[in-house]
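idk why but the lab printer keeps eating my pages so im just putting this in chat instead. protein + magnesium ion:
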Amino acid sequence: MTDSLTIDRRAEARETPDRRTHPRDVFVEFRDVFKAYGAKKVLSGVNLSVYRGEVLVILGGSGTGKSVTIRHMLGLEAPDSGRILVEDEDITDLPEEELYRVRKKFGMLFQSAALFDSMTVFENIAFPLREHTDLSDEEIARSVEEKLELVSLPGTGHLMPVDLSGGMRKRVGLARSIVLDPKMILYDEPTTGLDPITAQKINELIVDLQTKLNVTSVVVTHDIQSAFTVGDRIAFLNNGVFEWVGAVQAARDADHPQLREFFRSSAVVAAQPTGPG
Ligand SMILES: Nc1ncnc2c1ncn2[C@@H]1O[C@H](COP(=O)(O)OP(=O)(O)OP(=O)(O)O)[C@@H](O)[C@H]1O
Ligand SMILES: [Mg+2]
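predcted complex ->
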């Protein structure tokens, strides 16, 4: 426990040696966060800062707690101990009504990117506006079309989800997650299940939205190509803490065996010819 905490602190200290002279604006901060489900310890003293305006990529093996980490940012999970701050506000003990206000700061692209299959693309994207705003139908129509253009799907509002390819579904999910103009976008495995060309287009879209919307982003991924395309920094989750945090450029040469192994095995997987289907 103490060991992993030390690693975590060291990772952050090494990464920002000049923090006191050049303080960076922190959007989300984890302070010593612990979370277990029954006997299963998932987060074991996590310390992490997400800086305003950056794309932070969270890498880590299956079941290490990546999705759990972003669920904590949204207040969908409460830590067993430790604090979570969003724009300097401690959200750890906020009641549910208050958390709604905090959640409006975030757009979330869930791992499944599930759309409502019985609704058109337009209604899928309009849904959060109808739930959370008093906009007129005309304003909603304008907002939905603007978001469809941002994800390069103009004029597709009349389509049904069943008519869409996997990449298009992700784009529609993304349009829906930005429709309330969030300050921060959370992407959980945005390219999983997509072919490499479609995945690369989604990566380019993430970069594009970052500049056009002037947001902060966290991208959870297994996809090394994606990490290197979209990320400013990488945070590697292992043994319940972020054992390595640093600039994307520095990650490949990181002096961290498991992170190196992660890159090595991913490169092998990426180089293998894909099977049928
Ligand atoms: N609500 C829950 N109840 C019980 N266990 C949970 C719950 N949520 C997550 N877990 C467990 O916590 C661990 C971390 O889960 P999490 O979904 O964050 O993994 P992950 O890193 O996102 O993995 P993947 O890459 O497979 O998506 C897993 O062992 C999971 O089974
Ligand atoms: Mg996950």
